[in-house]
Amino acid sequence: MKHAQIKEAAAALFNEQRNPFGAFSLGSETHHAVTIPDAVRRCRWIGVDINASGFGLFFVSPSLERARLVACLDSDYPSTGLTTKFISGASGEEMVRHSRISTMPRWWADSGMAGSRRRFESLAWAEPTAPLAPATDGIAFPVHAERGQCGLVVFLGPDMTLSDDTLYEIHARCFAVFAAVARIRPSETGRTRAISKRELECLKLTANGNTSEEIAKLLKLSVHTANQYLTQSTQKLNAVNRNQAVAKALRLGLIE
């Protein structure tokens, strides 16, 4: 199945009154109203459908000199899992090159589970590759979006269930979620450092109009610690002050 056919399949899913992530639409909900947490939920739904234990969405860096995978989100969102960090930090030039020129899914089986390898080997339109992370089993779907952006949607787990009949639909759903995420943050996706739960709590309370003193009291922290959390989240969001950090967090769907 070629790149154009995958995109057609993604469009077909939407045109059949299904949202671009493969679940039925509700009312007037469209793919334009997606936030990062929405994308995480859609990836999780795909993971449930194929019995994956984890997932990650990566952008391919635009630099031709240092090709690498840039993590955007994973199943540990808003934090970043160790496997995702490893994949981002590993030398992935060959997989990056593949993603730029092909949409063929690539799988690996490095957990020692024979059943996992047999299931992957039965897929006609997928090929083996070196493990993106050691001691894991996984499949990587190359995806593309507007403005020449490309990346991977990766699913992990020793018990995944995929067949040739479902592979194309899963890939189309990956295309759709990647395109939606690319529209949200075409220039910033993947650059935000992981923000802790406490930092998000402080940001949310700031958005509600609470002062540092009030936040400290509500969360049973010292004022110094509350201010430290707010400073750290501001830095991680590349914001100039708390108000801008709150605005960015709201726009990205990190807080409501």
Specify the CATH class of the largest domain: Alpha Beta
Residues in β-strands, percent: 5-15%
Largest sheet: 6 strands, mixed
The CATH architecture of the largest domain comes to 2-Layer Sandwich
CATH topology of the largest domain: Beta-Lactamase
Rounded mean pLDDT score: 81
Q: Which H/E pattern describes the elements?
A: HHEEHHEHEEEHHHHH
Helical segment count: 10
Radius of gyration: 19 Å
Helix proportion: 40-55%
Spatial sequence of strands, sheet with the most strands: 2-1-6-5-3-4
**Structure class:** alpha+beta
Query: What is the terminal separation in angstroms?
Result: 40 Å
Weakly predicted, low-confidence segments: 10-33, 186-191
* Number of domain modules: 2
The best one-word shape is elongated
Describe the protein's architecture and organization.
The protein has helices spanning 3-15, 36-50, 82-89, 93-101, 114-121, 164-184, 197-207, 212-219, 223-236, 242-251, and strands at 54-60, 69-74, 106-109, 127-128, 137-144, 150-156. With 256 residues, the chain is α+β, with helices and mostly antiparallel strands. The protein has 2 domains: 3-184, 2-Layer Sandwich (Beta-Lactamase); 197-251, Arc Repressor Mutant, subunit A, CATH 1.10.10. A 6-stranded mixed sheet has the order 2-1-6-5-3-4, sandwiched between helices. Helix 8 packs across helix 9 (223-236). The longest helix has 21 residues, at 164-184. The protein is elongated. It starts with a helix and ends in a 5-residue tail after the last helix.
